[in-house]
Specification:
This protein has helices at 58-61, 210-243, and strands at residues 8-18, 24-26, 36-42, 65-74, 77-82, 91-93, 98-107, 119-124, 139-141, 147-153, 159-165, 177-179, 193-199. It is an alpha+beta fold. Strands 1, 2, 3, 4, 5 and 6 form a 6-stranded antiparallel β-sheet that branches. A 4-stranded antiparallel β-sheet has the order 9-8-11-12, with no helix packed on it. The chain is elongated, with a radius of gyration of 37 Å.
């Protein structure tokens, strides 16, 4: 593009993609909005390039063909448009740096006892529910072996795992368990990050000893009979005395 040296220009971009059927579609964020970015610059020479930075969730573009459409403005006037879905120079395919997290649910008193039907959620560092590599909420239920596996994209901010529903008969563990990747982590599926979450069993509550209750009832009944007999005896004694 032949620009005028010393003048200020603005480049506005929007992310596009090609769907499975080969159709051109606009890439949308989690709120259903177009993913756009812009940058302003002062031309140092008639021709050149500038960087336009887009912020987008990794799973939205990982391993997918993403194309940048750009429009160049001089103030409010459009002076150039670049919108070719087949332009390889405007196309990027970002490999997903994904990894696996296995959460194991165990009994606090006996960690060999694995707990099923426990809900585990992966959260972003800001407390919002994380998305897995398929764009679904990272929420799952432990299986019969007490395990639930999540596949996530790498995030600089990090994640943490937390129990969000305890299995029947157990108290919920409200601790937050950081998802920590070692510096030499190899991002291999067979080498997941393992997090163990333990729950304490809810103690059995006894409403009372039925045999003891029967004992009290029997004792009370015997006491009642004894009192009744004493009252009858005293009454007879008093009656006899009055006749004399």
């Amino acid at each position: 593009t032949h620009l005028e040296t010393g003048k200020e220009y603005t480049v506005k971009g929007i992310l596009m993609e090609v769907d499975e059927e080969g159709n051109e579609t606009t890439l949308l964020d989690n709120n259903g909005n177009e993913i756009t970015a812009e940058t302003s610059f002062t031309a140092a020479k008639p021709d050149g390039s500038v960087e336009v930075t887009f912020e987008v969730e990794g799973y939205k573009v990982a391993n997918r063909k993403t194309v940048v459409f750009e429009t160049l403005y001089e103030e409010e006037k459009k002076i150039a448009i670049h919108a070719d879905i087949n332009d390889e120079n405007q196309t990027v395919i970002i490999p997903g740096l994904n990894f696996w997290v296995t959460v194991v649910k165990v009994d606090a008193a006996d960690e060999t006892k694995l707990l099923k039907n426990c809900e585990i959620t992966i959260f972003n560092a800001d407390g919002t529910v994380a998305k897995d590599v398929n764009g679904e909420d990272a929420i799952g239920i432990t299986d019969g072996q007490g395990n639930i596996i999540f596949e996530l994209f790498y995030s600089e901010e990090g994640y943490y795992a937390q129990e969000t529903q305890a299995p029947q008969g157990y108290r919920m563990n409200e601790d937050k368990f950081p998802v920590e990747l070692a510096e030499d982590y190899d991002y291999a599926e067979e080498n997941p990050i393992i997090i163990r979450v333990n729950d304490e069993a809810v103690p059995d509550v006894h409403t009372g000893d039925e045999s003891g209750l029967k004992g009290y009832i029997t004792l009370f009944a015997c006491s009642g009979i004894a009192l009744a007999a004493m009252y009858t005896y005293m009454k007879r004694k008093h009656f006899t005395k009055s006749v004399q």
